[in-house]
Fold:
Amino acid sequence: MRRELRKAALAAAAGAVALTLALTGCSGSSSGDNTDSSDRVLRVWAGSQTPITANFNPFAPTVLHAALGPIYEPLFFFNKTGDEAPVGMLGDSYEFNEDGTVITVTLKEGVKWNDGEPFTAKDVAFTFEYPGNENQYFVSAEATDDTTVVLTYNEPQFTNAFGVLGSTWMLPEHVWKDVDDFATFTDENPVGTGPYKVDTVTDASYTVVANENFRDEGVPAIKTVQYIGIDANQSAQDLLAAGKLDWTGMFIPNPDDVTANGIISTINTPQDPTVLYTCANAELGCTGAQTDVAVRQALNLAIDRGTITDKAFVGLAATISPAYTLMPRDEKWLADPANAESPQTADAAAAGAILEAAGYTKGSDGFYGKDGTPIELSLTSVDGWTDYNDAAKLISEQAAAAGIKVSASTVQWQEFSDARQNGTYQLIMGGMIGTSVADPFQIYKDWFSGGATQPVGTQLDPGDWNFSRYSNPTVDAAVDAAASTDDEAAKKEAYATIQTAIVNDVPYIPLVINATQTFYNSRDFAGWPTEDDLYAFPPSWGSVASGYVLQHLTLK
Structure:
């Protein structure tokens, strides 16, 4: 679903993998001439950790990957790999009123939930009214007939079409009306509209099977998909090389090691920013030297991104913009060409000058401090995320060369997740979710808006991603201004304001656009996204997109 999930370091023993592969009792990946899809299991690793716990609640931080796309769906599919119109999933069309405050959605006819109940506009209205989908601008949702729903807001939603229509999971009213606490509901038998439904869950894997009630696209050709838990990236790599894993998104520094078998193909689609999260806001409870903007600015200049790209990401990452515009896709939204990319080489002298201007002095040990207190920052990454672990070590070395002490260490996934949700960290190697349209608005709204965060010690609300606790009234006003207009010039003006602020404040320190490698079995299965037909973001962990890919696959 997101980079931090897809690369989760896993704790199961290697022997659990062999057990997992025997669970379904179906034919393995070795039979290229098997034409009966009913007994051919597609085996997937999307980053699940063992022991697997059944949780398909789309609001839960620990939701299993198959919930988001294969089971639950939004109204429309937005392909983040290109600048193109969204595809109707449950929705057939939508239209804004003149000022962008009302969206009228027409639904496809005859759609059913996977339990056979009809999907209607009443379900859509219920979903948008549901507490877990709170939107500060939302007014009402009204089903005017079985296939029409009218969504009303008190502010224009032109720029937030993806957030409203492409990332709101439709909920069956006949199930969710009885859920007392959506935050703790585990939803072990989810009722969705997607191409698959849950069959079995064990500690080592979970299996989904084709939804026989799937809509006009037809029942998926691949009848059974098994999501397995794996102990580490290397185990997944070994399974790929052996032809015993069919689809995954992960970092492999030498792709030829797994594609040489003639079974597995690969594609690299850099989309998502890799950054240093900084708990930046002292007013909301963040502690540590990184709460000083001068320290963040200095660390930003101390980083040698070219070396990190070459050594940690083996040349597969792309250059990042400090304005968080994905270049060249989002070039028209970049206000200042000087912000097209972050510095690729370190400038220790410039970093030192910033610190000294802010009152820091270098001690006899070569490290900066102020008022007798040295700058000592802890940088964590998740154990087993090999590229991130290597990048963190390089950052520690590069920071030291500029007189900034950064100690890199690894933690388990749950500790990582808890720290960023609660703000109890200083620096984290992490990923952002790249925008699903050719427009940086969603990153600005989700990652930099003060309305998308909480004080330290309070978990972020579902769907909020501002882990840095960044809050800048100028940015918030510009985000609101961008959301309220469909005029390109007005949006550019708002984006210029946002970009100026975040480039200066660096609440997230940009590193690279992460290599996004997908490995898939092209011998036994057809219909994968390719460079010539990139109809969807291809990794197995992709939210929404993974379900869209699965419904396009066929058996060779």
